[in-house]
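COURSE: Structural Biology Practicum
ASSIGNMENT: Worksheet 4, Part C
STUDENT ID: 0417
INSTRUCTIONS: Below are two proteins. For each, the amino acid sequence is given first, followed by its structure token string. Answer the questions at the end about the second protein only.

PROTEIN I
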Amino acid sequence: MKKIFILPFGALIFLCGLVLQFSYETSGGAAWSMLIASLSSSPWELAKPYMLVFIMWSFIELSCLRPRLLHFICARIISLFILLMTSCTALLCLGELRVEAPCMLSVIFICILAAETAEYLMYRSSIRTELFFVPLIISFAVVFFCILFCSFYPPPFAFFRAGSNIMNTFPLLFA
């Protein structure tokens, strides 16, 4: 049944993330909005609101669908990692190409749909993802901490700096 709703739910996640992305400017720089909004144009900051909405949507879906708990949580965490990796990598590459914002937003939407589809396929499959429950929970806690902490104290990597591109991040590949 969820397969039918991947596109509308992906659009809902995208639109809520888009609203959160600009909440820092619209709130007048309020402290609470620093946790959920994009503070700079780095790939990490641009993907952060969408990841937070993806996490919030997981809790709503968990309470409404009442799925097999461990299997659902594992599939959802893996799909969150897919969203994180694909969106940040795509934004890093598009930053190199100096692509305009509408194209970047469409790429984020495609990454959300890919993560939702991956979660659906993992949940429906017979793969026993619940065997990886503890490592996935630990890695999710680390990523969630990074989502919140790296906004205020970004590491000195190009991935977390505004105006980053793939040539800044991997200079040895393009020497």
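PROTEIN II
(use this one for the questions)
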Amino acid sequence: MSKKHTFKDFLIEHNDELDNAAHELALMMLSTDGMSPSKEELPWTMEIIGSILEHTGSILKSKGYHICWPYYGDDDTPCYVLHDCNHKNCPFKQQ
């Protein structure tokens, strides 16, 4: 990540990557022949994507991993300032 990135830029880019990966995972889990279903068969919906990410994050945390799923807290405080962020490679905690 470039040092010129703002937290907002990082949040948008990283969360887009996570959302896309979760949607691709869902498409592959519906596949029976190695071919993903069409996007019409599984439309992009944050209800499903968010659930996949929440469950995946919970599983990883329960196994002792520190995840990076950036967000702003209730008062627009970035996650790296809050107690939730324990990722040793957080580029913003190190600044």
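ANSWER KEY EXCERPT:
Q1: The chain has a mean pLDDT of 87.
Q2: Residues 25 and 52 are 9 Å apart (CA to CA).
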